[in-house]
Structure formats: C-alpha cells, structure tokens
Amino acid sequence: MAQVQAQPAVIVRQMLEGLFAHGVEALDGHPGMTDLRKIFPVLKEGIPDLTIELRKQVVEGDQVASFWILRGTHRGPLFGIPASGRAVEFQNLSIAKVEDGKVVQYNSETGWLSFLTQVGALPRP
After folding, report:
1. CATH code for the domain of 53
2. 78-116 residue pLDDT tens
3. Residue 3 is assigned to a structural domain of this protein
C-alpha cells in the first residue's frame, strides 16, 4: 500500500509549529533549515514566550509561501539589545521548498524594523 504524503503547506506548518512547541529537534529531517536551527535558540533567549500564528499560506507546486505573526515579551538580550520587558508583535514571510515530505530550502524575511521600534532600540516614526 502506498504511503500518502502530506501536502507541502501542511509539512511547513507542522514543522514550524513543532519548532515553537518542541525546539530545534522539530527541524530534524528537514535539510533546508540550518539557518533557522542556529538563530531560533537566540530568539527564544531574547523572547522566551515567543509564539507564532499562521495567517496565510499560498502553494505553487513544491513552493509554500507563508505569512506568520510572532508575539512575545522581550525578556532577554537579543542581537545586542538588552531586555526591554515590552510585549512585541512582528511579522515574518517565508518561502519553503518541499521535496519528498521534507523542507529542502527555506528563505524568510522578518519584520525586525518593527521589533526594534517596539523595544525602543529605534525611535518611532
């Protein structure tokens, strides 16, 4: 009996939700996630209660574009910025390539300008 493969969007969603729930081990088996594997512990140190909410996904073949909202409290140092204690909410847009049930390429842009403004590292416009 042939095994049914999950749709690319489901694979991406489950992988990233697993990352936030269980840590970088959720990225095992996804060879395209090396950069996120390195940066995620840094993010969790600076924003220990960091959560992610999927707002939208668009699939075209093996490519999955996802729009995420990240929320948490800036309780630790992050990229040289001391803890502010402020609640933050910023966005992320990612494009993942899925092959054989695995994320083999992952690119994302995060709304760091919004984060820096919210924690007081940059003046509000």
Report:
1. 3.10.450.50
2. 999 999 999 999 999 999 999 999 999 999 999 999 999
3. no
